[in-house]
Description:
Elements: E1 8-9, E2 14-15, E3 21-26, E4 37-39, E5 45-49, E6 54-58, E7 65-69, E8 78-83, E9 89-93, E10 98-102, E11 108-112, E12 118-124, E13 127-132, E14 137-142, E15 148-155, E16 162-163, E17 169-173, E18 178-182, E19 190-193, E20 199-204, E21 210-214, E22 219-222, E23 225-229, E24 235-240, E25 246-250, E26 256-259, E27 265-269, E28 279-282, E29 285-290, E30 293-298, E31 301-305, E32 312-318, E33 321-326, E34 331-334, E35 340-344, E36 350-356, E37 359-364, E38 369-373, E39 379-384, E40 389-395, E41 398-403, E42 408-411, E43 417-419, E44 425-431, E45 434-439, E46 444-449, E47 454-460, E48 464-465, E49 491-494, E50 497-502, E51 507-512
Antiparallel strand pairs: 1-48, 2-47, 3-51, 4-5, 5-6, 6-7, 8-9, 9-10, 10-11, 12-13, 13-14, 14-15, 16-17, 17-18, 18-19, 20-21, 21-22, 22-23, 24-25, 25-26, 26-27, 28-29, 29-30, 30-31, 32-33, 33-34, 34-35, 36-37, 37-38, 38-39, 40-41, 41-42, 42-43, 44-45, 45-46, 46-47, 49-50, 50-51
Amino acid sequence: MTARPFHGVGGTPEPLAPGVVVSALVEPNPLHASNGLAFAPDGRLWIAQFLGGTVSALDLATGSLEPVLGSEGPLTAPDDLAFADDGSCYVVDLPPGLVWRRTPDGTLSLVTDGIVAPDGIATWRGRLFVNELAPDGRLLEILPDGRWHELAAGLALGNAMAVGPDGRLVYPHLSGGEVWAVDPDGGEPERLLDGLDRPVAVRFDAGGRMLVLSNADGSVLVDGRDPVSTGVRGADNLAVGPDGTWYVTGAFTGGLVALAPGGSRRQVLPPGLCGPFGLASVGGRIVAADHHTLAELVDGAVCAHEVGAHGLRGLAAMHGELLVTTEAGELRCGTVGGRWHRVARGLDRPCGLVAAGGEVLVAESGVDRVVRVGRAGEIDPVASGFDRLVDLAAADGEVWVTDAGRGQVVRLSDGLVVAAGLARPEGLVAHRGALVVVEAAAGRLTRVDPRTRTSTPVVGNLPLATLPPHVPAHGSGTGSLAQRPAPYAALAVHDGGLVVGLTGTGGVLRVGC
């Protein structure tokens, strides 16, 4: 099995200083989450990975996983795909509102643009259909010249759809809890099911039974009754194999599960971390903010928990609880597997944070300032004038920040630059009288002495991802509810050592020094 492709630097981590020992705390995740999937004419299962901008082809017989549309581009965040009768693969690229076509010889071309959050996609008798993941989304037929016409409107977040035995398009309303059908040749849509919990995909098996997958509990509803559990957290899509086996992907943790007609369950590809992003040590365990979930790392395994929000970013421990920032501009507080509440809202792309001296300081990267967040949610500016502010660390009454744009680590109290010339510094912690920073553009972990202002490399060749040039760092402006996040290489102190998030592979590295 091959590692997931990524745009960035690094490979196999290597110590760069005497006495440094590195080991894997969490193994790499072969998929950068897993979303849409479909069988190709050659029998391989193609899997779209939204968070990695990649489509991979899985040979079910050998386990070989080959990238067929790589992370270098031009895709931003593919969410679903479908094959036409001529062997061409059509892919929806959700944030920029694009639909792509890949021919059997590997040629990639743009079919159409300007759709708001294209998500579900289906082909039928030479025709192409796409729906929108939007609060008032549309179901569209895409014409050969790239124009489209509307078949249905008012979708409450459209998602994976299929053509049924009667020739009608059947599609879910993800947030509306409904399944609808419409004749592609005209007519009024008909509601088939309601009262469902986050229906995310509709498929049909060889016998014509309708299969509805739930993103909430990972169950498959068969013909409107008899739910079957798949055990997939954040289940996202479903494909039916030639022998009737169901294959289910997971948007929250990746992986691929197969459920045979007889009921047996097999983990085809393991789940894991999609980022990871922020890291923290709490209660003797490491926790990662992993975009859709908080992931508790236990004996090398990943145990994912939902917190009622997505786009989880920075993470810090305070008084036995956790604080997490979100891409929606929130600061939330709670415990792993417990209750969560919102502390503050209205932050501009918050990233790293630190609890210091009874205060909570947040790196507000959207406006490049540090703010103090009070218990009542009040937000007070502390310092500004940075260039791509990412993370904070605190020790001995001082706070430091990483300024990725200028390549610096800066002391907050007086603006003193304690390290310069760094290659996009991101994650930052205080450790044994020094600062340790992740240089994400160099794949390097570096120790900084704030007294002498000297820097010493600790670990090199870290596999760290970055957004390719064609992917906007802060959204596409199409009104999409889902955006591909920028990687955030974080680290934390745990059991006297360091743990580093490897955003290129989805692994976590333990560093003893």
